[in-house]
Write a structure and sequence with these properties.
The structure holds 2 protein chains of 2 kinds. By secondary structure, chain A is mainly α. Chain A has 13 helices and 4 strands. The relative contact order of chain B is 0.17. The chains are: A mainly alpha, B mainly alpha.
Chain lengths: ~325, ~350
């Protein structure tokens, strides 16, 4: 790794391997374009974009935690409680709207709940020393339990005017949810990739020991990353609320797997195969485009899980094989 | 740290230190005792032999799955596909019984084969393609549960009411007055314990889990050992699947998933009982019993089921935090003692 890259046979052989996921995605999208005539229509694209919003915003939050804690899934950072937190925020807002609580108070309450969940995770990870995977899995169960207790496992539909406006309105032909997603993307991209704090976060994720020796406050960086992830969950709640027009029990389950899938697929878009905010956005878009394309082609819904599972394994295997090529 | 500062430290806080030491050693056990007392005072049935036997029987499958998880976690990995392995075991057994009309012994063998298939896929992904265990088994989980839905037209159960009584007895029969699932689970637990703590294979798994690079340098065939751990884990889960399918007399797709989180929790709660905070078989048993007693106690209190679910999540969280905190405290105290002596 220390010497300059040399254009040898081995390097030329290694080249296509790490491009396999991208090539495959491109091939799949092209396939959809030809097979499903409506795939590229503006209406369909805008549906894909709108439906991506909650997933993408959750992925930004997860990306923060993974970037700060390192991308080893067991010992590094991960936050599996984000979908549950988001659904909790949705439930809180839905119940509040039914009780005619003012929307500002509700927004405040939802953000506070999400930040509290983030704080709980951070305390368990940093203070108690639980592996993040375990801590956030357990808090996810507890949060889902709390949500079900609050909402009594009912579907709560709301049609407050502001929600309808957010759901159906658009600016320059692009739905509000997509603008919102882009705004959150810009915020997180700036925080993680273009600010001093973000550089510190990346350093501590790269090597905890090196970061501590360089004088970076590892623990408070971890705390901040979990809080930022909780905040993302609160932001995702708005888009989730508009997508479902209210709160439904069990909404967190499909989101959890898709969030992990999209964030790790996103590593295929970075040159160093690391988790990035930009990659998370593209990963989320891809996952949703895939679901959409398969649905347009009338593929049995039960096969979709197989396709997605095979995809994540392919991306990860390609990344692993490439890493071995480097060593 | 020099001797004098340590001496001052211990002298100034001897009482607090002793309390801490006591907590570090018995904290979790004390909490368990408090909970049991609470439940016993709340419900007259809780402390009866029948109820405790019920708890044991109801958690036999969880114990088996948790043992599988213990093996994998000792080897330094994690297995999210335990539910799929369990389902595959149940499905293979039922198809063998119902469609192929195999004798029940052959059906059990078919179930073990089904479980081993899942383990094989995991092993190919983890050892062949070098995908990290968490993500590899997550992929297996995705694909496996999707396949279960595809093959059952969306998750309809496969029922077989007229199965051989010998097979049904695996779940409901009793041997020397003890329920057969409990007998199987305890036997498997003993085997796992002996395997992990009393054989060379077990020592190697511990070594691989603690430091794979060092054990490779020391001449351990890391890949071969991990391969057998992954296969053993899935086969164990398939045994759980056999018991489940025999009990319900049907295969219900995706039923195995409900054991995943409890199994992980039991293993990690169990690490609190080990001096070095390692996953271990007796600790896993304690973790399973803890979870089972909690659920049973909350059930007996007659709470509304939504509230019970919420409380269960909270109890899980508190138990994990306490057990890890205890483990950490004990390690720190040990380190201090070593420094002072």
């Amino acid at each position: 790794m220390s010497d300059m890259p040399q254009p040898g046979l081995r390097r030329r052989l290694a080249f296509p391997i790490d491009k396999i996921p991208l090539l495959l995605f491109a091939a799949l999208l092209l396939f959809f374009c030809f097979q499903a005539p409506w795939f590229l229509s503006w209406q369909n694209l805008s549906v894909i974009l709108t439906q991506t919003a909650p997933l993408a915003i959750l992925c930004f939050g997860l990306a923060c935690v993974i970037i700060g804690g390192g991308d080893d899934v067991v010992s590094g950072g991960i936050d599996l409680s984000l979908p549950a937190t988001s659904v909790l925020a949705v439930a809180v807002v839905s119940i509040g709207v039914q009780l005619d609580v003012s929307i500002f108070l509700l927004a405040l309450l939802a953000v506070a709940a999400a930040l509290l969940a983030g704080l709980l995770n951070a305390l368990m990870v940093v203070r108690v020393g639980l592996p993040p995977l375990l801590a956030t899995l357990a808090s996810s169960v507890a949060i889902v339990g709390l949500t079900n207790y609050l909402a009594r496992q009912r579907r709560i539909s709301i049609d407050a005017p502001w929600l309808v406006a957010f759901r159906d309105g658009d600016l320059l032909g692009i739905p509000w949810a997509v603008w919102f997603m882009l705004a959150v993307f810009v915020l997180y991209q700036f925080l993680v990739h273009h600010s001093r704090w973000g550089q510190h976060l990346q350093a501590s994720g790269g090597s905890r020991e090196a970061a501590e020796l360089a004088g970076l406050p590892f623990k408070s960086l971890m705390l901040h990353s979990y809080l930022l992830a909780g905040f993302a969950a609160a932001l995702a709640a708005l888009t989730l609320l508009s997508r479902g027009s209210g709160s439904s029990p069990g909404a967190e389950e499909p989101l959890l797997l898709e969030m992990v899938l999209a964030t790790f697929i996103g590593t295929a878009f970075s040159r160093r195969r690391v988790v990035t905010i930009w990659g998370a956005l593209l990963g989320a878009l891809l996952v949703n485009a895939l679901s959409n394309g398969l649905a347009l082609m009338r593929v049995d819904i039960f096969w979709v899980g197989t396709v997605k599972g095979a995809l994540i394994l392919l991306v990860l295997s390609a990344a692993a094989v490439q890493r071995r090529g480097q060593l | 740290m020099s001797q004098s500062t340590m001496a001052v430290n211990t002298a100034s806080g001897s009482r607090g230190d002793r309390a801490l030491m006591l907590f570090a050693r018995y904290g979790f056990q004390l909490m368990l005792l408090v909970f049991i007392l609470f439940f016993a005072l709340n419900s007259p049935v809780f402390f009866t032999v029948e109820n405790l036997a019920n708890v044991l029987q109801g958690n036999a499958i969880l114990l088996i799955v948790a043992l599988a998880m213990t093996l994998v976690v000792v080897a330094g990995g994690i297995d999210l596909s335990v539910g799929v392995a369990l389902d595959f075991g149940a499905a293979f057994a039922l198809v063998a019984l119902k469609t192929w009309h195999w004798p029940w012994q052959a059906a059990v063998l078919a179930a073990l084969t089904g479980g081993a298939l899942v383990g094989l896929v995991n092993a190919i992904l983890i050892l062949g393609f070098k995908v990290k265990p968490f993500l590899a088994t997550l992929g297996t989980w995705f694909i496996g549960s999707s396949l279960e839905r595809v093959l059952t037209d969306g998750g309809g159960p496969i029922a077989y009411r007229r199965m051989a009584t010998a097979y049904h007895d695996i779940a409901v029969g009793s041997l020397w007055g003890i329920a057969i699932p409990v007998v199987i689970a305890v036997a498997l637990m003993l085997i796992c314990y002996l395997l992990l703590e009393r054989t060379l294979f077990g020592k190697r798994i511990h070594a691989v889990g603690l430091n794979p690079v060092a054990s490779l340098l020391a001449g351990v065939n890391v890949k071969r050992n991990l391969f057998w751990v992954l296969i053993a884990s899935s086969v164990l889960c398939a045994i759980g699947g056999v018991i489940l399918s025999a009990n319900l007399r049907q295969f219900s797709p995706l039923a195995g998933q409900s054991y995943l989180l409890d199994a992980i929790a039991a293993v990690f709660i169990g690490t609190a009982f080990h001096p070095q905070g390692r996953p271990n078989v007796p600790g896993t048993l304690a973790g399973v019993l803890f979870l089972g007693l909690m659920a049973n106690g909350l059930n007996l209190m007659g709470l509304d089921f939504i509230l019970k679910d919420a409380l269960n999540g909270l109890v899980l969280l508190v138990a994990l935090v306490l057990s890890f905190w205890q483990g950490r405290l004990r390690q720190r105290l040990q380190w201090q003692q070593r420094g002072s002596s």
